[in-house]
Amino acid sequence: MSTTPPTAAASGPFTRLAAAWQARSPRERRLLRVAAAVVGVALVIAALDWSQTQRARLGRSLPRAAAQLEQVQEAATEIARLRAQPAAPRPTGPALLETVQASAKSRGLGLVIQPAGDGLQLKGQAGFDDLVAWLAALQADQGLRVLRLEVQQQGAVASVDAVLAGGS
Questions:
Q1: C-alpha separations of 87 from 61, 90, 97, 163, 166 in Å
Q2: Which end of the chain has a smaller Cβ tally under 10 Å, C or N?
Q3: What is the CA radius of gyration of the chain?
Q4: Residue 36 backbone dihedrals phi, psi, to 5 degrees
């Protein structure tokens, strides 16, 4: 049987730590205890400060989040209500022609609109941005899509020749 003391490699980390602690003088141990207490108190104070800051932040953001949730729920209810409604019938034939002519006139577009086969033919002059916005509105509201479009710039306005047809 061997009576040699265990080497540092053979001993565990707690054994080495206890040996290092015992090797310190009483004054050093007291100083290390005070330093550990100061660090511990500082950590507790920092944690409490962080916690208080986060509570204040959450106190400010929670009402906003609740209001946003209420808006989303109201929107979802409105979407469900609108989906349950049948789609409004879109005008066809002469009623569609009158609707499109009235829409162009209300936007101040100088266009002549005539029936052409299964769709409508547009000719005239209009501002390009106004024309594009109007065509987008016609597609969204009336289901009309552009089959053919010729645009030529003439100063501040554009000369337009287009054919629109009902889409699905």
A1: 40, 9, 20, 25, 16
A2: N
A3: 40
A4: -65, -40
| Distance in angstroms (rounded) separating the CA atoms of residues 155 and 96 | 31
CA–CA separation, 164 and 80 (whole Å)? 32
Partners of 166 in the β-ladder: 144
pTM assigned to the model: 0.48
Q: What is the pLDDT of residues 98-149, one digit of tens each?
A: 888 898 889 888 889 888 887 889 999 888 888 889 899 888 888 888 889 9
User: Where does residue 160 fall: left (phi above 0), alpha (psi -120 to 50 degrees), or beta otherwise?
Assistant: beta
Contact predicate 109/131, CB 8 Å: yes
Place of tokens 């979407």: 79
Contact between 111 and 127 (Cβ < 8 Å): no
Cα first-last separation, the chain = 96
Element (H, E) at 163: strand 157-166
- Strand-pairing partners, residue 161, are 123, 150
Q: Is 14 helix (H, G, I), strand (E, B) or coil?
A: helix
